[in-house]
Fold this protein.
Amino acid sequence: MNIVPVILSGGSGTRLWPLSRQQYPKQFLSLLGNNSMFQETILRLKGLESLLDPIVVCNDNHRFLVAEQLNQIGINNASIILEPVGRNTAPAITAAMLQIINGVDKQDSIMLVLSADHEINDIEEFQKTINVAKIHAEKGRLVTFGIVPKSPNTGFGYINFSGNINSDIFEVKKFVEKPNQKTAESYINDGFYLWNSGMFMFDSNQLLQELTSYCPEILNAVRQSFGNATQDLDFIRLESDFFESSPNNSIDYALMEKSNNVVVIKLDVGWSDVGSWQSLYEISEKDMNGNVLKGDIFEEETFNSYIDAGSHVVATIGVSDLIIIDTPDATLISSKDQAYKVQNIVKSLQGSDREEHINNRKVFRPWGWYDSIESGLNFQVKRLHVNPGAKLSLQKHHKRAEHWVVVDGKANVTNGDKVFLLTKGESTFIPIGVTHSLENKTSKTLEIIEVQSGSYLGEDDIVRFEDVYGRTN
């Protein structure tokens, strides 16, 4: 049977703020190499036999990020399912299952369900474990992957297993929630507990039978949503009302804890969910002073610290055991053992109606990205990076004017009833209320400096008339 990877990519990654933000969460960041964690999740499957194109389940705001990062690694035929609202893993997996069962070439496939934000070091062993798990999934068992614990960690749920069915697969007695420290230590001493990884393998038709028996409310709601889904460019947009009516449950709670058909396979592959700055420090390569240094850093007598200088020179003297994360619009400085409290900072930002938890200063769009270089009373300066062949929507603004200056490349500009070409050093002024557009018809990137002026400069002051990415009002 074929394997269809199902990549769940709906997390927000608030514990890795300020790098991870609501609109650009940790799974899309390159934290441990050149590729993002999302990309590595797919690339580490390369070489598995009978592997089909993946299904990615994500939210609407990340759809172009997913598409672009898939394209960067040569994945052009993935199915991208858009959730109208987060409803935990059970509805997301159900939607992917329906996509498989209703597909032309994927029926009777094995689903390999993976989170988009995990790190795995031993890829060879990981693939061996997948191949073993597939044998049992083909027999109709619901397979979950349990991580061999390295410590009494209180940040994970646990799987309590009993007698082995054979040398590599075990019966599941129960799933348990994240324990306190004393309970976690008892689990480790017991020897029959594994960390719950949130990774699974199911035969798609067997999963349908199990969902019918144990969580029909989720199945019926998602089935109605899937049946009324719309095709939006390359995306499958689930219908919102039915999807929102689904219970908000994890697959563990909705199904795995109830079924008597669940088995667990041990996984010992250098796994991490990269859930905090502390965990990222632990799995990163360190220098002779125990430091992880990224970016333009000058340090003296600095030890056992994680420092990411993303936008400025960072200099440290006589410090140790710190997390220092510098971004263009926010800087985090924390002791390593207290860095998990960054979630409290994010909540405070949310409660203060601030933007720093939502977007980075550099904001990605389907046509490229923009960076808000400077802003003040009634003005804002942006740097626009327009990808080759990309086009901004035909739009107008009610409360701001714009001045575009080409600093590199060639821009095909629509400004009112005029259409013309701008080259390096040339500019145009767009008054308030005038319809305009910008296109890069070349094979090279286009760089624009945009100066906005007006009484209101928010991104919601856009009326779109035409858009190749389907974003018209």
